[in-house]
Amino acid sequence: MVGDTSVYRKVTYNPTSRVTTKVNKLFHIIGDKELVAQLRPQNPTPPKIYGLPKNLKTNWPLRPIVSQVDAPTYKLSRHLATLLQPYTGKTSSYVRDSRHFVELLNGIQLQNTEIMVSFDITSLFTNVPVDEVIQIITTLLCGSTIPTGYVESIAFCLKSGYFLWRGDYYLQIDGVAMGSPLAPVVANIFMEWFEEKALESASVKPRYWWRYVDDVFAVVTRDALKDQTSHLNQVHAKIEVTMEEESEGKLPFLDVLVIREPNGRVTHTVYRKPTHTDRYLRADSHHHHSHLSSVPRTLLNRALALCDHKYVDAELRHVRDVLERNGYQWRQCRRLLGITGEVRKRPAEAQRTPAYLLYVQGVTDKIVGTELRESKFFRGPAEFLTQLLLQL
What we know:
This protein has helices at about 15-25, 35-40, 75-85, 100-105, 125, 130-140, 150-160, 185-200, 225-230, 290-305, 310-325, 330-335, 365-370, 380-390; strands at about 10, 50-55, 60-65, 115-120, 160-165, 170, 210, 215-220, 240-245, 250-255, 255-260, 265-270, 355, 375. By secondary structure, the chain is α+β, with helices and mostly antiparallel strands. It has three domains: about 10-90 and about 125-180, no CATH class; about 100-120 and about 190-270, Alpha-Beta Plaits (2-Layer Sandwich), CATH 3.30.70; about 290-335. The strands form five sheets. Strands 7-8-4-9 form a four-stranded antiparallel sheet, covered by helices on one side. Strands 1-6-5 form a three-stranded antiparallel sheet, with no helix packed on it. A three-stranded antiparallel sheet has the order 10-11-12. A hairpin with an 8-residue loop joins strand 2 and strand 3. Helix 6 packs antiparallel against helix 7 and helix 10 runs antiparallel to helix 11. The radius of gyration is 24 Å and the shape is globular. The chain starts with 7 loop residues before the first strand and ends with a helix. Mean pLDDT is about 90; it is low at about 340-350. InterPro entries: HTH_animal (IPR058912), RT_dom (IPR000477).
């Protein structure tokens, strides 16, 4: 996993102290003392790398993830990512999520000479050219409200990547680390530049081209498909593009299965990977009811949002079977159909003092219901509560 010498280099020292010192020197760019106090690293620790198997790929290669929580650059990277985010998603090809993609599909009529395909970038994050993306960001921020000095901080966070692996330290000498708060937004910025360059120079442009980070859904003519794929692989030396064609009139994209009807009309339903187990948080597990109810609510919401009307009933039958196998009562879940998709506004609440408690089934509920009626009760995972406590 760390054997690629074009991306990683082993070193004999712990870079944490050096990186922390540099981060503290960069805070003069921000100036806001209160913000600096929030971003300053406290007792930083080295990032750790681990791998998630790509179980749909041959030989199950690992996807490297560098956990940067508590790393010297983590808080600063998160702040910079927040500043950069509004400058992405401005292109006509941008796909926000699966629901947005379904909206884009409405009204599409395919010709017999056209084919649905998806393009994917091989290992995008580790192949993002850092020096080039810094130049792209510099150009992007020209004339913006973000001070130009921030580019120095962005460049440092991108170039100071390192991690601990089996007792040894490694520097990441190119690419961005999946696990860094900056990585998704930087990858998106690079892909916007890449697709603009690719489409401008293409001899035949796809009729439809929609992108979610490094996944692209496109409709091209069958005759131009081979040339289109070859062209995409010539845009940048580090970027390798793979292509998947529709099979039997079907093509998965995100968690949507796009279906070509015999008349050329495009429909859609929910897509689940072959490795999906349909196992969810069981109804009889030791969790708060708000967490448990999120399971049927999410599945029902997805069915109604992603399915064309002709596939809704089949998907709801599948959801019912899955929920019952996970211990849920369909009669209770069915009530959610009446409120799924509705936005219910809560009345404004008076300012209250929050109380933070561990959730113990049967005990916490009684305390909240009797002793703490005037306090706000946050129900969330331990990480969420930790963040709340840090803000006190």
